[in-house]
Amino acid sequence: MNWKLVALIFAALAIVAGSLMLTKATPMTAATEMFKGSLGSPRAISGSIREMTPLLIAGLAVFIALRAGLFNIGVEGQLLVGAFTCAVVALRAPGPTGAMLGAVSGMAAGALWAYPAGLIKAYRNGHEVITTIMLNNIAGYLTSYLVAGPFIAPPGDYPATATLGEATRLGNFLEGPVAVNWAIPIGLLATAGLALWLRYTVSGYELLAVGANPTAARFSGVDPARVVVRSMLASGAIAGLAGALQVLAYEHRFYADFSPGYGFDALGVALLAGGSAFGVIPSAFVFGALSRGGIRLAIYEVPKGIVGVILGLMILIAAAIRYRKVKTVA
Amino acid sequence: MTGVSKRFGSVVALDQVSLTVEKGTLHAVVGENGAGKTTLMRVLYGAWKPDEGTIQIEGKERSFANSHEAMLAGVGMVSQHYGIVPEPTNLQNLILGAEGGAIIDLAEAEQRASSIAKKMGFAFDWHAEASRLSPAGAQKLEILKLLWKDSEVMILDEPTAMLSPADSDALFGSLRQLVDEGRTVILVTHRLPEVMEHCRRVTVLRNGKAVADREVGETTSQELAQLIVGGAMVAPEPSPAREPGPPMLDVSSLTVRGAKGHEALKDVDLTVRAGEVVGIAGVDGSGQRELYHAIVGIVDPESGTVGMGGADVTGRSTADRLDGGLRIIPEDRHAEGVVEEWSLVENSSLGLQRWAPLRKGRMIDTKRRSEWAQRVVDRFKTRHGGLGLPLSSLSGGNQQRFVAARALESQPRLIIAFQPARGLDILGTADIYRAIRQRCDEGAGALIVSFDLDELLEHCDRLVVMNSGSLRRPPEGREKDRDAIGRLMVSAS
Amino acid sequence: MLSLSFALVVIVVTAPLILAAMGGYTSERGGVINIALEGKMLAAACLTAIVSHQVNAPAGVLAGIAAAIVLSLVLWLMTQHFFIDHVISGMAINALAAGGTNFLFGRYRQSDEIPQLPLAFYTVTAFVLPFALWLYAGRTRGGLRLISVGSDPEKSRLMGIEPIFVRMGGLVATGVFTGLAGAMLVTDTGRFSDNMTAGRGYIALAALIIGGWRPVPAFLACLLFGAFTALRIELVGSNVFGANLPSQFWSMLPYIVTIIALAGFLGRSRSPAGLGKH
After folding, report:
1. Cα(B197)–Cα(C69) distance, rounded to whole angstroms?
2. How confident is the model at residue C109 (pLDDT cuts 50, 70, 90)?
3. Integer angstrom CA distances of residue B258 from B26, B292, B491
4. What stretch of H or E contains B121?
5. Are B88 and C147 in contact (CB under 8 A)?
6. How many other C-beta atoms are found inside a 10 Å radius of the C-beta of residue B221?
7. CB-based contacts of B356, cutoff 8 Å, min separation 6
8. What one-character DSSP code corresponds to residue B53?
9. Chain C residues lying within 8 Å of A320, measured CB to CB
10. CB B28 within 8 A of CB B193
11. CA–CA distance, B387 with B369 (Å, rounded to integer)
12. Is the predicted pLDDT of residue C1 greater than 60, yes or no?
């Protein structure tokens, strides 16, 4: 038994319970309400699944970079430019072709947005955390300018693009009380593809080698700089896809403050997922359910920040379990 | 020290060891790797607490909670891996840990530092960054650090491992001066000539036990060697003379710039033929590392060419070279050869991931890889707890066996080995060199870098010497002459 | 344009950046990667606002500093005792701070203006600090040990210096400096608002890196960022080079400059070798 870990988990629970004591909700009612709000009814489950979608795909984006030893905080910005580009392109070419073109161009935009960070990391040793944070800010200002100016939908009193036609939208894969959009099977397929690629291909093996020990990778005939740039491009493309699918499946347009921080939550999703891409699926679902359930707490005047606190603590605990360095005896 | 024991889990590192050192003498502690030398010294230095046993200094019983207390009591240690922090200056390194006050008076510190250095006959640029020190300079600074702290008992762990013979002699000169002043020096080493030449008494450790304690004048290096390994030494088999085959490695007029922009390799020519085991002797930092990097293909040469198996590979990637049969036993296996958190199976294909037997097209052949991993651990009888466990579950010596087997079993055509016997005992070392020899008999060529001249002399067909970036050849007919090679290692050009 | 009022704006917008960057300095020089400057500033700003309102201005500043120290010690605990990756710990702390401040301040509704310390208190501290730290690093036992631990923790340990305690000291200092930075933000604007740090912690970190982890160059980098921000404040809405550039353009500028700086000559600056090691 690891007493340090137990202490950490107890401290985390105490913080959450303590915070709730400050409000009108008791920890017990808060827990039941959150459960009801996220899993209690078919409607609630549909909502949780919807919340899960961007987290799943953006989580994969963070995950692949993480496996290559890169901490891509820039998923947020890549997702934004992906969503914006997708909306603009899909509006020009209605119908399924437009959706297709929108998704592809969204991925291209996301990859492009990640490219400088990859290059600077690979060839200038500039830390990707810093560059991607900068790129996030630029993406935020740039898209908010574009959607408030050149691409605003008439009459122009709200900074948003026009809405996609029915034919261009992504429909439901499952209808019924629990609705599931096509974006979910696409995300699951991407997860499986990524997991198998990393496990069974030579190039996946080489990516993992660079992430685990770049020097050893060089001596093993792998060029870490090239792998870094490619992983960053792949990560950006997946993040762009997350934004594009969000537009095609749910939002049907792009608007200012499009993302409530999907890219940042995706960091937590990927960290919670651990070593296998399949871990991203339950991890994204937990995050999605928590943020969905958090909405219901507002009835008890519990500010939504409590969800952030819970997620932050979960990241820490997951990291404490998974990322502990093994102490070696000299 | 009386009856000292120390256990790590179920492993007994020290078993009832007693050691008595007379004040004002140079006392040697010898033994194989893993015999418990370093552990014993760390207990004395206060870094580790003994499970049983006592320590007495000048008749008084002492117990140190940490190395700081030991330092206050006048016991100081220079570890094998120098405790010199790269970024601060030489002077700051000297006073680190014993600054003598919250605010540092640099002028006063420099004065005292200079006077200590002068007494020992050393000279330092006090305000240069310590990362620029040569190995010999670092060793000297380490000794000054002990003097700065007024240590009476000084422990030196393998101090000459990185030094040239001339620097070693100078070091022993300084040590003798310290002993004459009444200080006590304990020397941990595996080099018997040093013991015979410079020390007064010697204690031999084997498997965590003190097996002998002798006056140096009353023993011979033969007897000590037998005590160390616990049996008669096997005489090395003479290598039969063979006709070398076609060149496997052809380095010509190679010049490489080092990290600081200087010419780390100057116009080096070297050919290794099939069937040949060529050793590169030299003091650490003479350009061996740059040559090794240039052959592996991770630095681009300034000028000159590298050829392998008759083809020019200059400017080609490491992957291409591995594809052509280059196999590496790396210098620092943690950094260059393995991923410690990966399983043995995953590590068994590192560097061989594109080797045809282990893949099907772009896919990994997982079944063949598992069989391969089994072959790798079997080759040198690597002791492991399961092929699925992380590599970090292996001891250092077993990791080295694993890495060596991986290179030597995968159809090598050119073997480049940088200190291949690092962390291995005498028998393990012999095993690995025998395997290298076997591959060379089958038509491969091997280039070995080592800082241990005796190891090279014992196992190589011929030796060349690196000295400040240039390659030198011993005179015709004296390719394995210890004196001639020793001179080439240190003489100025 | 280069008037006294412009200079004053530069000073006021730069000071919190300097304080935060120096907080990053004492942490990263000891080898702890500190991506959590942002969260510490935010927590400090929130606590300063609440306690200033309830008690008085000095108590508010102390509460802000205390909050930042607590988060610093959480980072210390996570990285040094639980051996969690430094960047992950920092991100988690930022999430905790963002959620926690939203929660606390959402519970607590501020009606009127809060009592404040004079701005000069912060600006003077901020502009003296880099030089003080420069002296501290070169001339004192504590400074030497901090840099040694950040350069090579293993070897420092051999010299009888415990990295874990040296780092605790460094992180407490981080708490004090980022706490002051957060308190200053509240003083400057008069109230707390959600996510009011708006990425200043990251900009401060970028300044530290561009300055090569040295206090005075990092200070100059902060000044550069401050000048860009002040330019935006001055120039928004006015014609520059005959064009009316949108405000977003001015907001983007410092980030674009940072990327160019990292892509160009500054990318290769040397980081403390022991960053993230145990």
Report:
1. 59
2. low
3. 39, 12, 22
4. none
5. yes
6. 13
7. none
8. E
9. 78, 82, 84
10. no
11. 11
12. no
C140 interfaces chain B, CB cutoff of 8 Å = yes
Most A CBs within 10 Å: which of C248, C249, C250, C257, as the mutation test of the A interface? C248
Prediction pTM value: 0.85
Instruction: Give the model confidence (pLDDT) of A68-94 as tens digits.
Output: 999 999 999 999 999 999 999 999 988
Within 8 A of C96 by CB-CB distance, chain A residues are 308-309, 312-313
Is the minimum CB–CB distance between B336 and chain A shorter than 8 Å? yes
Residues of chain A neighbouring C46 (CB-CB closer than 8 A): none
Looking up tokens 């003498």 gives B25
Q: Are C186 and C57 in contact (CB under 8 A)?
A: no
The phi and psi torsions of C276 (rounded to 5 degrees) equal 80, 0
Q: Compare CB distances from C144 to B68, B81, B96 and report the shortest one's residue.
A: B96
Of A202, A209, A218, the CB nearest to B362: A202
Give the range among A202-211, A266-275, B26-35, C70-79 with minimum mean pLDDT: B26-35
Contact B470, B267 (CB under 8 A): yes
Residue A30 near residue A302 (C-beta atoms within 8 A): yes
Q: Do C106 and A319 touch (CB under 8 A)?
A: no
Give the count of Cβ contacts less than 8 A between chain A and C. 149
B294, closest residue in chain A (CA to CA) = A219
Q: Tell me how far apart the alpha carbons of residues A272 and A289 are, in angstroms, rounded to a whole number.
A: 15
Collect the ranges in chain A with pLDDT lower than 50. 325-330
The answer to whether the Cβ–Cβ distance between C251 and A315 falls below 8 Å is no
User: Which of A134, A142, A320 is opposite residue C82, by nearest beta carbon?
Assistant: A320
Identify the sign of the CA torsion B87, B91, B97, B103: negative
Q: Are the beta carbons of B96 and C148 separated by less than 8 Å?
A: yes
Report ipTM (2 d.p.). Answer: 0.85
Among C202, C229, C92, C194, residue whose Cα is nearest residue A137:
C202
CB contact under 8 A, C246 and A149: yes
Give counts: helices (H), strands (E), chain A. 13, 2
- Across the interface, of A116, A144, A306, the residue whose CB is closest to C103 is A306
Separation CA A250–CA B473 (nearest Å): 75
